[in-house]
Amino acid sequence: MGSLASPHLSRRGCGNVALLPSSCWLYYLYNHWMIQAATYFFIFLNLSLAVFEEPAVYPLPFLATSLIEVLCLLVFSVRLMHFAKVTPRNIFWKDTKNICVMVAILMSLTDLAVYGTLRIYNVRSIRWSRIVRPIFLINFAESRQIRRAFRSIRNTFPEITYVFLLFMFSVLMFSLMALKLFGERNLQTAEGLPYFTNYLEIVFDLYVLVTTANSPDVMMPAFDFSWWYALFFITYVIINTYIFMSVFLAVVYNNYRKHLKNEIRKLAYMKRRKMVEAFNLLKEEEGAEFVVREAQWKQLVKLVAPDISNSHRELLLHISDDEQKGFIDKKSFVRLADLLNIQVITLKIRRHPLGQWLPHIYNSAASQFLRGMVRHRGFVWTYDVIILINAVFIALDEESPYISYAEWVFLALYIIEILLKVYTYEPRTFFGKNQFWNWFDTLIIFAALTATILNTTLKSTTEYNSQQILDIVFILRVLRLIRIVDSIQRFRVIMNTLINIVPTMLTFGGLTLVVYYVFAIIGMELFQGKIQFFPANSNAPHALECGNPALKDSMFARAKYCKNNFNNFASSFIVLLELTVVNQWHVFANGFANVTVQPAKLYFIAFHIVMVIIIVNIFVSFILEAFFVEYSVEKSEVETAIEQKIQELGMGIQEEELQDEKLLDNMESAEHDLEGEGGTKPPAKGLVFKIASKRYRTVDALLQRMFEAEIPPEDEGPSFEEILNLSPTDAVPSNVTFEAAA
Question: Rounded to two decimals, what is the model's pTM?
Answer without folding.
Answer: 0.75
